[in-house]
Amino acid sequence: MKDVIEAVSSRIKTPYFGYTVLAFFAFNWRGIFLLAATNGTPQDRLAAFDSITSHYTLVLWPLLAGALVAASAYWVQYIFTLVSRKPSGLVDNLYLEAEHKKTIRQTELEQSRSDLFAVKEKELIERAKRDEEVAGIEDDAAKEKLASQLESLRRERDQLSAQLKDRTSVGKPSTYNLSSEAVEILKAASENKNGSIRKPQTLGGRFVLAGSKSFGGEGSREYAKYEAALEELVGHGLAKATGSKGEMFDLTHKGWQVADVL
Question: Which residue ranges make up each domain of the chain?
Fold first, then answer.
């Protein structure tokens, strides 16, 4: 009995059986609808069903349609695969080229980083050698003078390096670690050519007005959140107060720079 059930189950799961069932419903949907929706006795329903169905629609056409679809399914799949092979290959090539360029760029950056560290290591070694040479000078006064001059030059060089690093980081939002509310205000203010931010207090409530958008008008808690965000912008030097009442602000040059890259 188990073998019979498994055999029947395997037959039912074949594509041909599924296509035949679909074809049966396609050819006889009107009769099935009448059988289910017609009012009357079972004999009346069966009569309505028989009136628009036949042995052809019930057996022959579904079997033929199922066989035809099952036989042509793989050909249809083959045609679609053949047609889509060229564009699929082009898309795969684009992904591969992008990945290849990314790998090359990462390799170049890693090499640049290695070269930079090598230069710094060499500089440290040179500094140590100079310190040894200075230590070997017997004249204490000359030794102290030379050591002082070297230290001054090194401080000056370190300051220039730090300034250069600061200049390259200006305008990057990550440098300031802004909150999402501060970013919202900054974006909205930059959409206005004046870069203005207002903090009016009216009878209708308090809110922060940046450009053409208002924030924090939903309640005291929301207002406090956006008021703190505005203070955050001022603290980072991205906005400055322009009025004596602390209600009017404008974006600074740094503020415009950061807004441009958001």
Answer: 2-79, 109-169, 173-260
